[in-house]
Amino acid sequence: MLVLGWHGGLNFAGQEDSSSGFAQHDGAAVILRDGKVVAAIEEERLNRVKHSNFFPVQAIRFCLAEACVGLSDLDAIVTDVAEHLFNGTAVLAALNNPALPMVPGREKMAGLFERAFGVDVTSKIHFCKHHIAHLYGCWYPSGFADALAVCLDGEGDGFSGLIANCNTNRIEVLRQLAEAQSLGNFYTKMIGQLGYRRFDEYKAMGLAPYGDPATYDAVFRSMYRLLPDGQFTVVPDEAKWGLLMEAGLLTQARRKHQPFTKQHMDFAAALQVTLERIVDHLIGHFRRATGARRLCLSGGVAHNCSMNGHLLRSAGFEQIYVQPTAHDAGNALGAALWLTRESGQSIPRDTMPTLYWGSDIGSVDDIGERLAAWEPLIMATRVPDVPKVAAEAMAGGAVIGWVQGRSEFGPRALGNRSILADPRPAANKDRINAMVKKRESFRPFAPSVLEERARDFFELPDGTASVPFMVITLRVRPEARALLGAVTHVDGSARVQSVSRTDNPRYHALIEAFGRLTGIPVVLNTSFNNDAEPIVDSIDEAVACFLTTGIDALFIGDWQVTKVARVPDNAALLDLVPRLPQTRKLVQRAPKPGTASFFIESTASSYFSESMLPVSPNLFNLLIEDADGVSARHRCQRLGLGDPAGLSRLGTELFEAWQRRSIQMMPAA
To answer: In sequence order, what are the residues at sequence separation of 6 or more whose Cβ sits closer than 8 angstroms to the Cβ of residue 158?
Structure first.
């Protein structure tokens, strides 16, 4: 049985504006064949919009190609929204845009597929309830024989979570959580006090260990009540703001780009403890009521790695499985698993053993051919033992880009699209932040460790043999904390990935080689992207990130890549072809008669993309001359821009816009 699961919005990137709202964020697609994953990818990896809220047409197209099928070959297509709510979403979209027809949800969905692929799929369409998709997405991949499954997020289908008792014969939903009980929304609303917003929750989690939760414990305790039988209530938003005002906190809220004070750290710490306290109360009740020994977690709240580590250590379960794509993108998988099971098919225990289901980087020859197109900005050399050479570079102090095989499904880079470095010098954290990430200094980097050596450096509870997905914080052994200075957080924890030889033999070989050189079979691992883009997926994206950041060396497949110059000179940049990304548009405004201002603006919501970049008239004219395949230099000649000083300024502006991913720069054909 072939099933396509998808999650996403109703607009097409590059064709329609989706700049308002963030409904159906984190678009993705998954194809299952007889209950096993064939391909899975988030739309953001392909359309380059973080948390993409567009219809995931590129992700769907990719999955079909990987499965070597067309839409007509599928047995079913399913999404993670109840049909009556999808009907409402379709009607609301039409009300907001009079150009859209007022049609039922099923017809609306069929229209999306027919528009993108030219095939009528009306008879294949199915709808799965949002939290049922979360449930199936964590229960079946866990491989457990029985477990308590807990799904917690912001909201979906009018609820904010559910709890179920699962075994191989039956799934029993024990409770659904009302939207008013949403722990995801509670956490998101509270981080506004820290100058953050939706999708910044992980930043507050990273700040929390620097603070003292006792400072604001009384304030947070007044925002909820723990009731018998695992029940709880959370006060309405208006009451929350009143409580913050009474405590004198609203007037001291941090603004974006302001420094973090001790007050902010204490607030984050109290927020994190509050989340863990309520979750302890909820899960503890159902653990006692069911006698469950194993726990499965999903929903966006399950990306709180600190909470997961707390549960692993103290919740009383023998084993915990956290769905690594716990956010809504993972519902493409969950919905497909649900439909497969509803159709009477069994789900194999190894339905999703790893996360390497995305784009393949290509053959050795394909990689070499594409890298050659980037000369003279780079030099590429094929090396016989890439893991050994890369390990030597890291041991010598280099920060490297590492691109291998198929990309990862989900928000974590697990050794196929990663930036890697020596985990020992604490200074490496600040160095990587400065050269690539441009993020807050308090946010930790993660370690990847050989699975067979994980217990030498990290405290794994009995029953936990591996932590392969970087979704749980563990305590670093006290004797290893100073040694692993770049990956040990201020509270002595680390968000660990254990790497097995079976799941990722090349990444395992690299860490093993680094261990032979240094005695430490651990590397610092962070996602391969700068702060303006999703994780790189293709060769071109990897090279672009390499050239526009301070990364020292790049390894793609069997190729070692070096920069000809630390920063590309303007002359070389002008020989590249500039173009607007799919979700950018050029805008000219005249605030007063006789004046003009020029911008590159996003057609995606500001939640997902930098909304506006002011540009010079010269760059605006260069980009508006939509000459496909024509270099910036030749466009300048057409426009009469030949002044050397002006060309130098234009080259600098091109580079800065490229760094912000407001434009793309590609080699000429």
So the answer is: 85, 179
